[in-house]
């Protein structure tokens, strides 16, 4: 059971960078995200099977969603070759060659034991010619059919239920997005994702693309916007019906000294906080804000101490989860627009 809207911290390799499972529990994280391609590279599925799946391997007793590796078709394009049958990968680590098919990606995620697995899809670059985006949509639907058929013919390995989500594509072309969503909805997946956003298109297009998809995708099933984004992106996309989010922004920005608060962004490396002996956010209940000041965390960054990034990450993950949790409360009590606007005025 997951309450939505929900933010999923990204733990690509079975670890949310700089955080322990205890940190994630304290942040009230309901679910985290891993990555099929990267986990298949290392530690590999032999180790994963011996460990009894990713939950046991990383000591995480809550939900895990695993991306299919479809995004790596986009991000590691120079190391991939796409065919209708699947994707040839050359490992970015050691050159080992892998062939991912819709069926093998389901099998790998069975071994990982994720609660929610994603199908293999083709994510278009931006900008992209419409004819290429259309080919990606066609292939994504074809792979989704193969994925759901194989998923239904196999069983979980570790005694807990697994489910699978399809991924809609179509780049910035409204008619292709509509086509992708309609084709996938007909396949009756338990949930759906909106892929191929936040890949270089203008930021103002993100909620527009999301709304095209949420208007079509079943409203009684989860809709997940992949790889998005800023606090403003999340709030605006909740408004159009998105339920689930993930993004590396809170962890990546934290390691570089930027934190998010309900009052806007703060640059912790800056001179403005050199003598600021108050918490990052005096209303935040995270471990960092309860115990440390902006001046101290700034000192750690400037001294090159690894604790700086850890403390900033603890805060950012707490904030993102708080943001979606408070959004849920505001939706229930009918005050969402007021809540959203109170945050957006500072971004």
SSE map:
Layout: E1 6-8, H1 21-26, E2 31-35, H2 36-41, H3 45-51, H4 54-58, E3 63-67, H5 70-75, E4 80-82, E5 87-90, E6 97-100, H6 102-112, E7 116-118, H7 130-153, E8 163-168, H8 174-185, E9 191-194, H9 205-214, E10 223-225, H10 231-239, E11 244-246, H11 249-255, E12 258-261, E13 264-267, H12 287-291, H13 294-302, H14 306-332, H15 336-344
Parallel strand pairs: 1-11, 2-3, 3-7, 7-8, 8-9, 9-10, 10-11
Antiparallel strand pairs: 4-5, 5-6, 12-13
Helix pairs in contact: 6-7, 7-8, 10-14, 10-15, 11-14, 13-14, 14-15
Give an overview in words:
With 347 residues, the protein is α/β, with parallel strands linked by helices. It has two domains: 6-247, TIM Barrel (Alpha-Beta Barrel), CATH 3.20.20; 254-344, no CATH class. Helix content is 44%, strand content 15%. It has helices spanning 21-26, 36-41, 45-51, 54-58, 70-75, 102-112, 130-153, 174-185, 205-214, 231-239, 249-255, 287-291, 294-302, 306-332, 336-344; strands at residues 6-8, 31-35, 63-67, 80-82, 87-90, 97-100, 116-118, 163-168, 191-194, 223-225, 244-246, 258-261, 264-267. β8, α8 and β9 (191-194) form a beta-alpha-beta unit. The longest helix has 27 residues, at 306-332. The chain starts with 5 loop residues before the first strand and ends with a helix.
